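Many introductory courses stop at the sequence. We go one step further.
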Amino acid sequence: MRLFEMDKDLKLRVDPRVTFSLNTQIKEQLKWLIGTGHFLPGDMLPPAGDMANLLGLNRNTINSVYNQLKDDGLVSIQKGRGTQILDNAQVKHLRKQREPMYELLMRTIDEAESKHIPLSEFFTASLAYLMLHEDIQADQLRILFIECEGHDHPFYQTEIERITGAEVRTQMLSELQSEKVRDEAVAQADLIITTLNHDQEVRGLLQGYNIKVYVIGATAAMPVLLEIAQHQSSSQVGFVCLGKEGGQWMANRISDAGIKNIQASPLGIDKASELQEMVEQFDTIYASSAAFDQVHELAPDKTRLFPMILEKSSENLLYELCQPGH
């Protein structure tokens, strides 16, 4: 683990003349730094206060950006420790996506400079050109994914992005209690996806909005079920997700599979003291991908990954949603 320090040739910047919000400017620059390997898994981002001072911004702005990166599954935020780049599927996906983009961008910049075209003017004009072509814009489906803080929402977002190729924004269910937040979120989406856990609640909140809501579900991968079934009778096994609701969902999958030989207990990583007791007392702990790094750090010998997969019907639904003319 290392605290990342900016080198003299690599600095984050904000520009009030740019039409993107300050939050978006900072978030996208950080995603470039992560995607191109300037930030590595395990690196600590600068404290929010230090970053705010560096950019001349309010600390709350940086906290908001860090929380957005957390929602995207790129970082973990631990009180007293800071914001750390994760080593997971989301970060690897970003690296895989940004590396060819970087190569293309460098070639484009070189050619623009060789023709003495101002870069800011070129990229502003390029964005305007895209906006003029509806066929290009229409290819990017905008999906609003709604979940609660307790479930492994990064898993769902990654799967939706992988299958649909859409622009996916995750919104917490608790945030949508605000009518203003609901209005803004729905206005920026072509359709909404939620999970079976919150189907009725989401539909109730969105009554009166002219937008379609689709429901997907996930289950445990078969290898983990077979592994858990082989535990000794009465083994104490913990199931940990971002919140207890997610841990309970994991434990329910074991029960649904007819596995009765263990004593299952759900928990969320938001309960630090209870988590510490669990890692000391339990035989094995299964953690979702979003919680795995934090739990594994506490108990590397006891922690196992609880891999999730989309239900086949949900995967088929997502494929259908991204088909032309749907």
